[in-house]
Write a structure and sequence with these properties.
By secondary structure, the chain is α+β, with helices and mostly antiparallel strands. The chain contains four helices and 13 strands. The strands form two sheets. Strands 1, 2, 3, 4, 5, 6, 7 and 8 form an eight-stranded antiparallel sheet that branches. A hairpin with a 5-residue loop joins strand 10 and strand 11 (175-180).
């Protein structure tokens, strides 16, 4: 591990350090004033502002504003990053592009406050807790957490629409179809549960439970309107959405 820090470097130094560092497998971060232009599936422009730029040797380029956890612009892994110095303004230009789909992000640096080369070594694998399998195990062992008197009859029952996570009965003996999601419940999850419940409607009363760490008011309302129910298990909530911004997310 090694770190090289440059305070207020000139344009030639920025272009050289970024190019050399990425070629040698190092990560570069820069605190800059810049403009950003995107061209690809759409086109967009981000006017001048102070931002943090991160360039990685795998072709990833991230442009962060001072607030929010998602980058305002980015190029995902697999892109190619090149640097140059604009002749007309003597300013660094960082360009990331990929061919499939064809996209291009250009960062025109107006002023560089600081630049860091970080020769990082990290071979650790991310281990996530609160997986869907763990939720299944927990529910199977503690069905009362969903509802008093609930009894699990079958785990992962196969149907023509896929596997029902749990087929259960409530305290009154009414069949209950349980669909479990590790992330925040969406309308797609609601539709999935609705399809499963429809398989048993001809046999008499049947209930449907959508279980997730959380759900939007829209999803909860859809459940109520359809006669289904949402049950929250917030202890399993994780941030599963990091990195989901797209290049068209211009705020």
């Amino acid at each position: 591990m090694g770190v090289e820090r440059y305070e207020s470097p000139d344009a030639e130094t920025v272009a050289d350090v970024v190019s050399t560092a990425l070629h040698e497998g190092a990560v570069v971060t820069a605190e800059v004033a810049c403009e950003v232009e995107y061209d690809g599936r759409t086109s967009g422009y981000l006017g001048p502002g102070d931002r943090l730029v991160v360039a990685k040797p795998d072709g990833t380029l991230l442009v962060h504003q001072p607030t929010k956890h998602k980058p305002v612009n980015w190029m995902p892994t697999g892109g190619t990053i090149v640097t140059s110095v604009a002749e007309t303004a003597d300013e660094p230009v960082i360009v990331a592009r990929r061919s499939n789909p064809r996209e291009r992000v250009e960062v025109r640096v107006r002023e560089t406050y600081g630049l860091t080369r970080f020769d990082a070594a990290d071979a650790a694998e991310y281990e996530e807790s609160g997986t869907e399998a763990e939720m299944h195990e927990y529910i199977e062992a503690h069905p009362e957490e969903l509802e008093d008197g609930l009894r699990i009859v079958e785990h992962e029952r196969e149907t023509k629409y896929g596997f029902i996570d749990f087929y259960a009965v409530d305290a009154e003996g009414t069949p209950v179809v349980v669909e479990v999601k590790r992330v925040q419940a969406t309308l797609n999850h609601f539709d999935q549960l609705k399809r499963y419940v429809s398989l048993y409607e001809d046999t008499g009363d049947v209930r449907g439970l959508l279980v997730a760490p959380s759900a939007s008011e829209r999803v909860e309302r859809a459940c109520r309107d359809a006669g289904l129910e949402f049950v929250a298990l917030p202890e399993f909530e994780t941030d599963a959405t990091l990195g989901n911004a797209t290049l068209t997310d211009f705020d």
